[in-house]
Fold this sequence. Notes:
With 232 residues, the chain is of the alpha+beta class. It contains six helices and six strands. The strands form two sheets. Strands 1-4-5 form a three-stranded antiparallel β-sheet. The radius of gyration is 55 Å and the shape is rod-shaped.
Amino acid sequence: MAGKNEMDEWDALAAQIEGETSGQSARADGLSGSSSPADLKKAADDFLKQHKNDILSDDDETEAPDADAINEAGAARIEELEMQIATMKDQALRTMAEADNIRKRAEREVQKAKVFGVEKFAADVLSVYDNLSRALHTIDGQAKEELGDNARQLVEGIELTEKDLTAALGRHQIKPVAGLGSKFDPNVHQAVANIPHPEIEKGHIAAVMQQGFTIGDRTLRAAMVAVSAGPA
């Protein structure tokens, strides 16, 4: 575009020179007729030399870019890109944190499902444990020794069944609550009586009427207990 403007200016200048030289030739012919073509060419060359620097300097002034404007535009663009990067980084961090929270929450839910998925079934199985336990408690050590071989084997089989059932419950994180002699805990114990006891400290379990169980960190069934009031 700059080259086209320059050519246009040179064409206009050449036309002006041609007009001036034609006028000068006409005047010279009318007056004396002494000017030669060589004199006219020399005059044109002198005119071009005189105005060439002015024309080129005008072109430089109009076409030279503004350095300050370029620097300001570049700084503004850099600032805009930095803001975009900061925003994208913040969004990425938030997305990663949310994904991590979802993963941890899902893991907790899966773990709870594994532990508490058998809660209702375990509560029903406890009635079987209670029946086995009551059957064994009706026979003390002396009565067991007085039993015949067949009856003694039957009692031993019941004891083994109770032991295996307790182990099976433990594999599913179903564990018995601390009983006789342990400190009373309202979270896992249900007090049904308060009795004096010469050997057990006050506030501790003096007797267990029904064994309690926990599943994971929950109480599956509270133990029915009698709490010691201390010596009479």
